Amino acid sequence: MDNDLREVIPSHVNDEVAVFRGCTTSEMIVMIVAASAFWVPVTIIVGLLSGQFFMVFGTSMLLILVTVFVLTVVLQAIKIGKPDGFYQHKASLALGRFGLRKSAHFDHDGPLAIDRTECIVLLHRDLKRPAANGEL
């Protein structure tokens, strides 16, 4: 093997690669879209009210960049020492708790009962009939 050519072996093939300050491409896209959805209408309204409409584009782009930079710093602090997808699970649970989205994760606070509330009949695999004397 040539000394100048080094093989890069990924440690986790299914994980997205961090592109900016520990954030993946999909996280960056979500942050940019959310910042744009907030700042563009706000700057348009301010531009119309102040009469400086052409300042809207530059101001909105600057505010979007600053917001994305701040969000990446915050998200980087949240992600330190946590497994991949930790905050995504937390966000999904929070949205489910507020009723904004159905959460796919089990969220229960308190003891769980392991007893059964009704009788279960086991069917024999081959004959599709109830098993006799507890045989499977």
List keywords for this structure.
single chain; 136 residues; mainly alpha; two-stranded antiparallel ribbon; 3 helices; 46% helix
Give the helix tally: 3
Shape: flat
Residue runs with pLDDT of under 50 for 5 or more positions = none
**How confident overall, as mean pLDDT?**
77
Q: Which structural class matches the secondary elements?
A: mainly alpha
How much helix, percentage-wise, in residues? Answer: 40-55%
Q: Could you give the count of β-strands? A: 2
Main β-sheet description: 2 strands, antiparallel
Distance between the termini: 58 Å
What's the alpha carbon Rg, rounded to whole Å? Answer: 26 Å
Strand content: under 5%
Strand order of the largest sheet: 1-2
Count of discrete structural domains: 1
- Element-level helix/strand string: EEHHH
Give a nutshell description of this structure.
The protein has helices spanning 25-50, 55-79, 86-97, and strands at residues 18-20, 23-24.
Strand-helix topology:
Elements lengths: L17 E3 L2 E2 H26 L4 H25 L6 H12 L39
Antiparallel strand pairs: 1-2
Description of the molecule:
This protein is mostly helical. It has one domain (12-136). Helix content is 46%, strand content 4%. The protein contains three helices and two strands, in the order ββααα. The protein has helices spanning 25-50, 55-79, 86-97; strands at 18-20, 23-24. β1 and β2 (23-24) form a beta hairpin. The radius of gyration is 26 Å and the shape is flat.
